[in-house]
Amino acid sequence: MHTENPDDTGVVFRKTLGHYTVRANGRDIDCVLSSLIRKQLIYPIADPTSLRHRVMEVREIEHVDPIAIGDRVRFTDAGGERGVINEILPRNSKLSRPAPVPGQRVFEQVIVANADLVIPVFAVAEPTPKWGLLDRYLVTAEAADLPALIVITKLDLAWKNKALETDLEIYRRAGYPVQTVSAKTGEGMEALKSLLQDKNSVLIGKSGVGKTSLLNAIQPGLGLRVKEVSQGGQGKGRHTTTHLEMFELEFGGAIVDTPGMREFGLWNISIDDLAYLFPEMAEHAGGCKFGLSCRHDREPGCAIRKAVMDGLVSPHRYKSYMNLRGEL
Fold this sequence. Notes:
The chain is α/β, with parallel strands linked by helices. It folds into three domains: 8-90, CATH 2.40.50.140; 113-257, P-loop containing nucleotide triphosphate hydrolases (Rossmann fold, 3-Layer(aba) Sandwich); 274-325, Probable gtpase engc, domain 3 (Ribonucleotide Reductase Protein R1, domain 1, Orthogonal Bundle), CATH 1.10.40.50. It has eight helices and 13 strands. It has helices spanning 35-42, 131-143, 164-173, 189-196, 211-218, 279-285, 303-309, 315-325; strands at 8-16, 19-24, 27-33, 72-79, 82-88, 94-98, 108-113, 117-123, 150-153, 178-180, 199-204, 245-248, 253-257. Helix 3 (164-173) links the parallel strand 9 (150-153) and strand 10 (178-180). The longest helix has 13 residues, at 131-143. The radius of gyration is 22 Å and the shape is globular. The termini are far apart.
């Protein structure tokens, strides 16, 4: 007879609607939420004074799921490789964005918990890099106090993007490490593996940039399915990953694959903090004539605009800053 142990702990490696795969002591346990945690999901507390709640089933509102990939949880082992999650243990970090759902209320979507490294993934070409999206990812990582490693895939297509090195130098000068790789030829893969070793990393990027091929090259035994980029002339790939999943790496550490994200808003970032989340601007942000009141637009004595004119901050990054500021 199986004896329940309410003190079992493990890490959430995979989740689909309403079910969570918890890895504990080499076993994968298919878990559901306890009634207590389900109430956190069913009754959002954005307005704790409200007397009216809209009741929804857990499978219908994944966007306010209190549990993220990478969470350490306490669960009751119910036997038969099944269990019930009773508690989410304190997080060391979390990477979040606004849940991409319609409606006036905005909920937090925790993409991954307890990560050590954020890896924005972009392709040399097919699809063409959108550097403004990269800036969003980097600001989100900075806000979460997580280091970022920029990975550029499809290096075998470098001949299609002559401006690549010039663009990447902007980010190197801002202090971000950049690793270029080709899953097809293997170029750069060993260097990337050394950067991932013994870390919990998360891949983020649009569909078609090659995240799945990258994972297969990092660890060939995964055998993940890859779809071809569509041939419609716009280089838009169809993402293979449809759910969040963490993979243990044979050389140490783990990596989280995420579905391609069409939208990536900023979560819980104030307009006054934004400039400090661009490392090359942060050292200048306190030197403006009008201090924190400076919008870094047309005000006289703006230290950030002077840094742009002096070549210390790239015009592209400054434009990204102003675009993001307009959203806050």
